[in-house]
């Protein structure tokens, strides 16, 4: 799995490659989803963390962003979620967009056809700017209004047509 450095920045994007990377990944998520946004009470970890690909954005030794992705089926449907960027990195590094692009590219490299995500309503324009499309209606998810969104991945063709993903795409 490759690493990437967005032009003009010292931000490194990579799949978590060590126990320290994974610990930092979980710490960023905890800081954002438990401490800052209070979406979860004690932890945001769940069963998907066992098989997920954990991605980090780092400035030198400091991990400032995290996202996880995981395969939902053998035909190439992937889920991206738990995108978290520390507040200072949101403003000064604008780490969110490179982190999302890296996650999408990684799922594509792993044979993905389509990635879906539940996006907080306030972040929908950001994801649309990155090429994601709305799927279905707004709905509550972990106590906040979210929009299901999807993006095509550049890798393997789907073993099923998009209508085979009706359950995931809200159609």
Number of strands: 8
Overall morphology? globular
Low-confidence sequence ranges: none
Instruction: Please give the oligomerization state of what you see.
Output: single chain
Strand/helix succession = EHEEEHHEHEEEH
* CATH-assigned homologous superfamily: Gcn5-related N-acetyltransferase (GNAT)
CATH architecture label: 3-Layer(aba) Sandwich
Q: Give the number of domains.
A: 1
Characterize the main sheet.
8 strands, mixed
Number of helices in the DSSP assignment = 5
Radius of gyration: 15 Å
Helix and strand composition category: alpha+beta
Q: Strand fraction band?
A: 25-35%
CATH third-level topology:
Aminopeptidase
Mean of pLDDT: 89
Amino- and carboxy-terminal Cα gap: 33 Å
Which helices and strands, and how do they pair?
Blueprint: E1 11-15, H1 19-36, E2 53-59, E3 62-71, E4 77-85, H2 87-92, H3 96-109, E5 114-120, H4 124-129, E6 133-134, E7 139-141, E8 144-152, H5 166-169
Parallel strand pairs: 4-5
Antiparallel strand pairs: 1-2, 2-3, 3-4, 5-8, 6-8, 7-8
């Amino acid at each position: 799995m490759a690493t990437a450095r967005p032009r003009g920045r010292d931000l490194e994007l990579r799949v978590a490659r060590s126990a320290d990377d994974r610990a930092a990944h979980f710490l960023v998520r905890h800081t954002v989803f438990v401490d800052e946004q209070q979406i979860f009470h004690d932890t945001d970890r769940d069963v998907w963390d066992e098989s997920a690909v954990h991605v980090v954005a780092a400035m030198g030794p400091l991990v400032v962003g995290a996202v996880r992705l995981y395969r939902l089926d053998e035909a190439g449907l992937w889920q991206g979620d738990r995108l978290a960027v520390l507040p200072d990195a949101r403003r000064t590094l604008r780490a969110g967009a490179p982190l999302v692009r890296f996650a999408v590219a990684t799922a594509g490299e792993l044979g993905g056809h389509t990635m879906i995500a539940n996006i907080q309503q306030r972040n929908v324009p950001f994801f649309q700017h990155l090429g994601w499309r709305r799927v279905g209606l707004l709905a509550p998810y972990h106590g906040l209004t979210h929009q299901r969104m999807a993006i095509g991945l550049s890798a393997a063709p789907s073993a099923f047509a998009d209508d085979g993903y009706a359950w995931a795409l809200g159609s």
